[in-house]
Amino acid sequence: MTRTIHSLAVMLLLAGTIVFYSYAAEKTLPPPVEKVLSHEWAISPQWQNATYTFHKEEFINPRIVEEMQGPLSDNGSQIISVNVHNANISNQFFSEVRVRSSQAMPFVYYTKSESEFGYIFVGATTTGIQVVHTMSTAGGSGIFHTLLFFIYTDSEEISFKEEVTPVVLPTLTLIGSLPLGIKFAGTISLENDVLTVLPSKEFYQPLPQYSGGVILRFDD
Asked: Which residues neighbour 25 within 8 Å (Cβ) at sequence distance 6 or greater?
């Protein structure tokens, strides 16, 4: 009797697996959408010499990136620019920066209670547009993935000292974001100013905005 029940369970499991993969095979995603972004960004000529970066020590604090990304429930950007040089050592954005180095680029993150937020540097275009892949959790099993696009700009502020004068500051500026959904398992690459984002080939997992993926060429 026990062997019969076991055999039936195995048969049902195999049948379910076959049905699942047959269903997944029938589902096909459209080809990736190809886009060209032509724009001359006002990028600071000193962007490669920034003290704090996404890809090496000293890392930009992930809490700053989280604040600039904003809540997942909101549309559009609220915090556009941050003086990273001051913010990275401020009490406002203080957190213990941690690093996992199991991938080609380090995963830079911080934790708070049961949540975690971090990022991986994807790369930079020849003109200085920096692409960052963020991942965040809120205590559940879901991992929310987003691509953020940053540039360094030269901003001016008023300096109140012996003389009141304008001062030029290198400022990290958010110029765009692309949601990738929950449990993104696809691929992201940036080569020769071409960003390629593709969904997983093993599972039927369309992307929120471009279900079959997107190929974005930066033509600055």
From this structure: none
Q: What is the DSSP string of the chain?
A: -HHHHHHHHHHHHHHHHHHHHHHHHH--PPPPEEEEE-------TTGGG-SSBSSSSSBPPHHHHHHHH--TTS-S-S--EE-HHHHTTSSTT----EEE-SSSS-EEEEEETTEEEEEEEEEE-TT--EEEEEEEEESSS--EEEEEEEEEEEEEEEEESSSEEEEEEEEEEEEEEEEEEET--SEEEEETTEEEEE--SSS----SSSTT-EEEEE--
Q: Torsion over CA of 48, 54, 55 and 58, rounded to 10 degrees?
A: 90
Tens of pLDDT, residue by residue over 161-196, are 888 998 888 899 999 999 999 989 999 999 999 999
Q: Indicate the residue type of 66.
A: E
**Cβ density class 74-89: b for 16+ within 10 Å, e for less:** eeebeeebbebeebbe
Asked if 32 and 108 touch (Cβ cutoff 8 Å), the reply is no
pTM of the model: 0.82
The total number of residues shown for the chain amounts to 220
